[in-house]
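Render this sequence as a predicted structure.
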Amino acid sequence: MSKRLLLKELSRYNVGTWADIIYRNALLHPNDEAFVYGDRRITFADYNTRINKVIHGLGKMGVKKGDVLGILSWSCLEFAEIYGLTMKGGYIASPFNPRLGKDELEYLIKYSETDTIFVGKELVAMANSLKERLPKVKNFISLETAAPGMTAYDDILKANSGEEPDIDLGEDDPVCIIYTSGTTGVPRGALYTQRRFIEDSKILVIDMGLQEGHKRVQITPLFHIAGNTHFRSSLFTAGCNVIVKFFDAAQTLEIIQREKATHMDCVPTHLAAILNLPDLKKHDISSLQFFWYGASPMPLEVLKGGMRVFGPIFAQGYGQSESGPAISHLSKEDHNVLDKPEKEQKKLSSAGRPDIGVQVKILDEKGNDLGPGEVGEIVVRSKQTMVEYWKKPKETKATLVNDWLHTGDMGYFDEEGYIYIADRKKDMIITGGENVYPREVEEVLYRHPAVMEAAVIGVPDEYWVERVHAVVALKKGKQATAEEIVAFCKKSIAGYKTPKSIEFVDALPKNAAGKILKRELRDKYWKGTQKEKKG
């Protein structure tokens, strides 16, 4: 391409679309590394070309703009490319949690109306076992390796041109569905457009001070809204993402040292595992400038340990699948209070203050604004919240009220505008960064022939922060062991949702109306802890 046509080429795609961002990176930073995955490295020019090839290949397979592309895979280079080709090809990405069971995946694939599924090498057997249940899925494409009965991703790359596709994209075109569980256990898909994902990415760029050339260690999985936004924010600024498929504490430090990484994102359990390494100090981690955490509350002692090792480089983000995810963040400066009085350290247990471009209110049950220190529901308004719940107008109407997103989280704010999460409105458990809704687990427990009553709560755990704990009352004359009940649950739900501990009681506490008192069950585990004090 002649250099004198560079500016003309830069105007090929509409401003406000990810096609524009991806092509811009290829033109202005062609030889800079976009992604590192194991021993594989690709530049922004390579990334753009590979995306184009798959778009052309999908066209030959009958896939058209607006079709839903499912992704059943752990994080890998091809996963990042699929996000790119949906952004540039006008498709809708539908990433599925690889931990889900067969029935759960079948429901999501049908609910999303997925046309084509990209399958990671670890999930080939699962996908093949589902084929007969999914007659409307036209194409199965295997990633990283060839698989019987599937089209190989590499074969698509080899057989197609890397020329720019002729696709008209607008900033309000849908681009991705991110799944969140409902309180009844029925998943819902939060739909996002090109523009909304760009607006959200801008916020994280500001919060993390991202610039071109920064190198991020991407631990959070790409199927999550957290992993998705970290992927996007680096792509937006022409930064490099080092993709990690499965977290390993020692390997993470080796990556930081080898790649001279500048940024990193994680959930609290990742940091706890790193701090427990016996040879932690042998690694050179001096290149790291920013350590971002989120998805679940960070235990204060773990945070202090992290700051002693990595320095004052921590910041926290709060959000959810429906919010973009950016809602608020606790900055690096806010974290620099360990040598301050306890009163000033309190903000470390907060979710920070609202992000730029995000409005937050705390409302009571009648929709009235509450003042400082008063607990109510957190509601949010911004340009990056979801458009709707995919194919669920009733649930959308209940959650998006006059442009305000009702998060279902309970909290309060202080005089300085710091937001504190008091409780989960629907008793949601956050274990290792994964959201678990107790009702879904309870439904499985009640299927066990020996179970009379069951309540699922989150209890403190040194590694997972919260673990799924079931309190069970057995039917008279029936017997069951904890191991038996755990094994029973594993047959129906994902491993991270399965109770990690079982407590047997004669009867569950109830109020006068017969409702099980979960707070009473939780109190003996949480009383005197940070979470209890915030509630």
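Summary. The chain has a mean pLDDT of 91. The two ends are 61 Å apart (CA to CA).
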